[in-house]
Amino acid sequence: MAVICLDRNLRTPKYIAVFNLAFVDLFGNSALVPKLLDIFLFNHRYIPYNDCLAFLFFCYTCLSMQALNLVALSYDRLVAIIFPLHYQVKMTHRFMLSLIAAFWVFVIIAVLIAIGLLTRLSFCESVVINSYFCDHGQIYRLSCNDRTPNSVIGKLLSALILWFPLIFILLSYSYIGFALSKVATVQERVKAFKTCTGHLSLVAIYFLPTLITFTMGANTHPNARIINLSLTSVFPPMLNPIIYVLQTQEIKESIKRLFKIQQSKITVKKVIMK
User: Fold this and answer.
1) What's the pTM value of the predicted model, to 2 decimals?
2) Given its phi and psi angles, is residue 236 left (phi above 0), alpha (psi -120 to 50 degrees) or beta?
3) How far is Cα 263 from Cα 274, in angstroms, rounded to an integer?
4) Is the N end or the C end of the chain the one with fewer CB atoms within 10 Å?
């Protein structure tokens, strides 16, 4: 985030989405990890109802925004490779900021609707949530009145925030691969896909653990599933910035330039002091 702010060369639509992804990762882990450590290390397993709903809001908002950020980056790569001559016209700062803002508004409204539907439920038996955070599905399944609206909104949001983004990303890269196979040489294809490696890595570390966990969740012990899900939530945000730095040439060159500028400033100060 600091490198993107300091280097004018990185103030492009693509890096607006990258900056937002880094912000969401930082914000999400700040909401999740302290409580996660409190539960696992200090065995503090109780949380007030209102705090639980607030915890749910921040966790789900950040997890959802990670997926939608990947959609924004996927669209950026699609336009850059398929319409390179029109990229500056189609992908402007205003468009990317509007897209990111629309995703934020959509996610916040969707999560608030899900939380609002939870407040109508009554819990007359167990109040033990079998999860590492205030999970929407685990909460509404504990209720003793009609929970059909909660089940519907849960499935709808899973489709809109998990499956639709994944399908869009897969279709985008399928179209990119098909288009390149028609017009580009092998070297040009490799060069084009090198610009996508960072984004594809982020897609893999976000979607694969989540899909595997939910696919095999029924065959694993509940405690193992909880630990696996908690690691799935923590590791992708931690790895995202590392992967983007290692696999994006622009960021590596920007870091080198910033270090050279800083070193030159230190040298000038020393000369002046002498």
Assistant:
1) 0.84
2) alpha
3) 17
4) C
